[in-house]
Amino acid sequence: MRSAKDFFRPLAVGAPEPLREIPARPSRAIHFFDPSNEKMAAKVPQLVGKVDVLLGNLEDAVKADRKEAARAGLVEIAKANEFGPTQLWTRVNSLDSPWVLDDLTTLVSEIGDKLDVIMVPKVEGADDIHYVDRLLAQLEAKAGLDRPLLVHAILETARGVANVEEICGASPRMQGLSLGPADLAADRRMKTTRVGGGHPGYLVREDPVRDSDGSDQQRSTYQQDLWHYTIARMVDACAMHGMYPYYGPFGDIADTLACEDQFRNAFLLGCVGAWSLHPSQIEIARKVFSPSVEDVAHARRVVAAMGDGTGAVMLDGKMEDDASLKQCLVMVRLAEELAA
Ligand code: GLV
Ligand code: MG
């Protein structure tokens, strides 16, 4: 039986293990829709070509008595539409739920040729990925699919974060990881009640400055990023394994400014995209996760100035060398991938 390893086999015998060939298609916004919600499902065709990824969500936010309807709705939508440059993903139910087996068997056999990536929630370790990997290999072989489905894991339990490196390395199918801040907050017993984003209580305060009468002057406070540690761990694990890291959901739909800030922090730290829970967040993600024209122009100047890439040059009073050249190449390549 064909396994995922066959699909990702090194191209030349004796060649060093290559970077796995994950399709470098843009996925700045992963737009969630509930396939059991007729209003939302009706909007799907209008979003084709306007968003990088459309994700039919079967897990949380779909009521227990709508799980079958959501699964059947996704099959219907996938069969009725062509998706062109937009990728079709799904988030199946968690591996400890009564629905996931039917999710995987139905989706692979019915629409495996249309799906690009299967997002698996609440992944806790390599075993979870091994299970999904094996099952997908069997279902793909049965369905006669000629390309493997990729797997994306949500990092949303303390155990998952502790095992992040082994999760990334568990299968050549691994496409990426998303931060799941809401479930992760609950699992860690954080004292928040939000879906992602910051909290006004999580801050640092300036040192005190005493007036001559001994009273303290007004002191500024600076809100901190609750997700910095987890995003940084996730980004390192993904970079090590040639996968893509994503920020997950930002639940306060009306607060577009804070959403943009949260997405930008993730972009600067190395993430390639985020989830969008409302059409307004698609534009935010597209903007934030595309390098700016100015940054790309600057990066190209550094690349040109560095010639053969060795040594150091001065540009606008700043020293550039091999390491800044490599950063600039990340930016230029991302711009090229997004433009392709
Ligand atoms: C997403 O699934 C989350 O729990 O934040
Ligand atoms: Mg979750």
Automatic annotation (TrEMBL):
Keyword set includes Endoplasmic reticulum: no
HpcH/HpaI aldolase/citrate lyase domain segment(s): 30-194
InterPro entries to which the protein is assigned, alphabetical: Aldolase/citrate-lyase_domain, Citrate_lyase_beta/mcl1/mcl2, Pyrv/PenolPyrv_kinase-like_dom, Pyrv_kinase-like_dom_sf
Cofactor(s) the protein requires to work: Mg(2+)
Pfam family for this entry, one: HpcH_HpaI
Superkingdom of this protein's organism: Bacteria
Keyword flag Protein biosynthesis: no
Keywords: Lyase, Magnesium, Metal-binding
Biased composition (Basic and acidic residues): 204-213
SUPFAM superfamilies in the record: Phosphoenolpyruvate/pyruvate domain (SSF51621)
Region described as Disordered: 195-218
GO MF: lyase activity
PANTHER family named in the record: CITRATE LYASE SUBUNIT BETA, LYASE BETA SUBUNIT, PUTATIVE (AFU_ORTHOLOGUE AFUA_4G13030)-RELATED
Protein name, per record: CoA ester lyase
